[in-house]
Amino acid sequence: MSPKNLWTRLTKSLLHNSNGEASNRYRILRRNIFILMILITIIPLIIMAGIYQHEYQSSIKKEIVNPLKTLANKTKHSLELFLEERLSVIRFIAASYSFEELSDQKTLNRIFNVLMDEYCCLVDLGLINKKGIQLSYVGPYEFLGKNYSKQSWFHEVVVKGNYISDVFMGYRQFPHVAIAVLRRTEEGRYLILRATIDTSKFDNIIASMQLDQESDAFLINREGFLQTPSRFYGKILDKYPVSFPMGNYGPIVVEEVDPQKRIMLIVYVPFTRSDYIMVLTKQRSALLKPWYTLKTKMLIIFAISVITIVLIVFKLTDTLVKRVKDADEKRELAYKEVQHTHKLSSIGRLAAGVAHEINNPLAIINEKAGLMKDLVAYDDQFWKNEKFLGLTDSILKSVERCKEITHRLLGFARRMEVQLVKLDLNELIQETLSFLNKEALYRNIVLKLQLTDNLPYIVSDRGQLQQVFLNILSNAFAAVEDGGEVVVTSWEEDLDTLGVSIQDNGSGMSEEILRNIFDPFFTTKQKGGTGLGLAITYGIVKKMGGEIKVKSKQGEGSIFTVYLPKKAKIGPGE
Amino acid sequence: MPCHKDKEVAFFGKITAGITHEINNVLAIIKEATGLLEDILSLTGEDAFSHKNKFEITLNRILGQIQRGVAITNNLNRFAHSPDHSPSTIDLNEVAEQVVLLASRFARLKNVDLETGPKDGPLIIKTHPVSLQMALFITIELFLDLTKSGGRIILSPRKIQNKYVVGIHFESKTPGDTDLFQAIISSDRWESLQEIMAYLGGTAQVDKFAPEILLYFTEAINK
Amino acid sequence: MRNLKILLVDDEVEFVTTLAERLELRGFRAQAVTDGESALHIIESDPPQVIILDVMMPGMGGLEVLKRIKTQHPQIHVILLTGHGSTKEGIEGMQRGAFDYLMKPINIEELIKKMQDAIKSQP
Fold first, then answer.
1. Residue C11 has what DSSP assignment?
2. Is the N-terminal amide bond of B157 cis, ω within 30° of 0?
3. In this structure, are residues B183 and B147 in contact, taking their beta carbons and an 8 Å threshold?
4. Minimal Cα–Cα distance from A538 to chain C, Å?
5. How many CB atoms lie within 10 A of CB A170?
6. Residues C39-76: pLDDT tens digits?
7. Residues A279-284: what's their mean pLDDT?
8. At what angle do helices A289-378 and B48-80 cross, to 10 degrees?
């Protein structure tokens, strides 16, 4: 649809609608534009915000979570290293000294002291034979001679060659871990060297993580008992209250709800050589605080943007629709002006036609009276009665002719205002035609009337109907050549409608012209012609509740058909 | 739609009807005169000379009426074409004369003399011809309402301080009888006049001292 | 000026015959017809010196007749009669060769003067 067509459609719809719909139309228009603009601006905004949120969320989570993982992993490594170190020392000792040396208390003592100087956290050291009996011991406990053959760790160290125990509360209620190694000697004996380590060092290592208030890091064993004190979940050997994944795995991050109803982000890093699991936990809300802050900021910006957009769109729509309304009103006013002028013009045309017509009979009277004067002047014997009576008779005939004309004009002048009256449509058509008679005569246009007899009455406005038929008839006359034919037919279309058709055998109109023929300002005249005649005619017929149609064939002619309701609908004052 | 538009149509009808009546009057006179001719012709013998005289006089009357008829139809034609181009450029002097012609019948009915004042050079403005004629006509009607019989109405288009004005002046047969100013502004027609003048982009005012109704027009109406 | 042959063409028979009669009374030789074809016929058989021609006629209009006259018999003077609504045709007629035009109802004295002027301009 070209812009021109759109414009014509709009003008048409404006001109041919009744006024009652007007205010509603603008409300609907305002609403529609508002909704459309809001959708156009806000939907992309939402999509964009959604995409950003999603992207950001996953990347931020990664950013926040990864360091945690790394930290946990590192700490686990440190702890593992710590234990490995001690285990390796004990292994070395077991490898370097003989069974006899190690079973000697004094030698063991000396070894222990050196170890104590070099390595921290050693609590005791002792040798156990393959039967599980502690043969030598240095340390604070009374383990000498103790039998461990029934204990699970003994079996484990015999099988695996290494053992690291879970944490237990030992000497002075400090947490301890026991480590043991097995060496087979050349003689086939094997010795088990066992040491106890003070795991308060664990705490230092964990403390070096430099965790903040919302974080907690600790060790648990595979059964879920705390091996180091936990800020949130209890002291050593308390049960870790959260369920954790079993099996072997690399560092993983899970989200869980803890007993305090907080959502926690928990990193689990299982130790490879021992039963421990490094647990690093942080409150998700605290962890994601920067993300939440960002999110909140984004939300606020989004909200402000939306509100601003809504306000601006509202104001814009309002202004726009007001402008449209103003323009429409101005146009409507201008159109009404033109319509009014057109009406007066068509009345004026008829009156002018009448004025012109009267001239001829007046000219006749003039000549007749003039002749009589001549005769009287020339001839004393002017009593040529017959002759003179003929002349006076002729004058009287001309006077009658004038009277008929003025009678027509008078009737027409009296009925100029808008009013609904009962009309005989045929009579009205004939009256309108009478004003065009002279033109038809001069141009030898053949007028054929096929007016149905006893056509039912129609209640309508005489002046407007005349305007309609005058317009269509004028167009028909303009379309035909001299000597052409115009056929006017009237009939009863149905119970409620009368039909009138005006057919001419003129040049006809092309498809394109037919499409636009009722459009305002559309004219086929090269110069002159406002292009409003048919538009106004269309408007009048529509306002009356009628229909107007046109068919045409180029080279053959056109036929205009008007359907009029027997009871016209016209508001007061047009 | 301003209701003066409906009034315009009514005005158009009224004037057209008035003119038509005038033509009918002409025709009536011609008819009667011709009847008289027939009567004279039917008389036999007697004083041929005096009859001839009468005959000639009557014929002259008929011819006179024809001239009058032609003038009237010219008037009608001019009036009928006034809505053709609206707005259009006109000379206030010409329009004043036309309106005097159009309204003469109505003035005659009340024995009021209706005329235009001395011309002061062309006064060209661009306006709506029909509304303009209507405004002048309503002013005349307003004054006609105020008198039972007799008086004089003078239309004088002129320039007052570079503004285009038509002054309509009323000389009552019995001056000092009524307070003209009060009568003017309390008249129904005064309101209609204001409406039309507003539509034309001008104003209607009363000069108390003359007393005169002054219609101020703009030089070019913009539409 | 006497015996000037005049042809009157106007579709109003009462008008044209009466006018012819009045001209005859004044010593002219006036013939009246009511349509263009008859006028052209007479011009062939018995050409006048002056033609008084109405512009608004049905059938062959006044201007068409004027054209034919001016092409075939340019020496014939033509005076046009117009109504008050057709002064345009009058002026157009003069552009096409008519000597002058008068508005109906006419003043016979004026008509005679115009005919004299036409003859004087070119006998």
1. S
2. no
3. no
4. 30
5. 20
6. 999 999 989 999 999 888 877 788 889 999 999 888 99
7. 86
8. 170
Q: pLDDT tens digits for B53-96?
A: 777 888 888 888 888 888 888 888 888 888 888 788 999 999 99
CB contact under 8 A, A406 and B24: yes
Q: For C103, which DSSP code?
A: E
Closest in C84, C85, C105 to B66, CB measured: C105
Chains in contact with C, counting 3 or more C-beta pairs less than 8 Å apart as contact: A, B
In sequence order, which residues have a C-beta less than 8 Å from that of residue A400 and are 6 or more positions away? none
Q: Where is average pLDDT lowest: A399-408, B35-44, C34-43?
A: B35-44
Strand order of the β-sheet with A263-270 is A215-221, A276-283, A263-270, A252-257
Are the Cβ atoms of B74 and C105 closer than 8 angstroms? no
pTM for the model: 0.59
According to DSSP, residue C107 is labeled P
Convert the pLDDT of each residue in A297-312 to its tens digit: 888 988 998 899 899 9
Q: Can you list the domains of chain C with their CATH numbers?
A: 5-120 (3.40.50.2300)
CB A237: neighbour CB atoms within 10 A?
Answer: 15
Over range A313-324, report the average pLDDT.
89
Q: How far apart are CA A158 and CA A76, in angstroms?
A: 26
Residue B17, helix vs strand vs coil:
helix
Count Cα atoms within 13 angstroms, Cβ side, for A332: 17
Q: In the structure encoding, which two tokens stand for residue B183, read together? A: 């009568």
Q: What is the DSSP letter of A315?
A: H
pLDDT for A524 beyond 80: no
DSSP annotation string for A312-335? HHHHHHHHHHHHHHHHHHHHHHHH
Kindly give, in sequence order, each residue whose CB lies less than 8 Å from that of residue A176, ignoring residues fewer than 6 positions away: A123, A167, A168, A169, A170, A196, A197, A198, A199
Give per-residue pLDDT as tens, A479-504. Answer: 898 889 999 999 999 888 999 999 99
Amino acid at A53: Q
Q: Which of A352, A371, A441 sits opposite C18 (nearest CB)?
A: A371
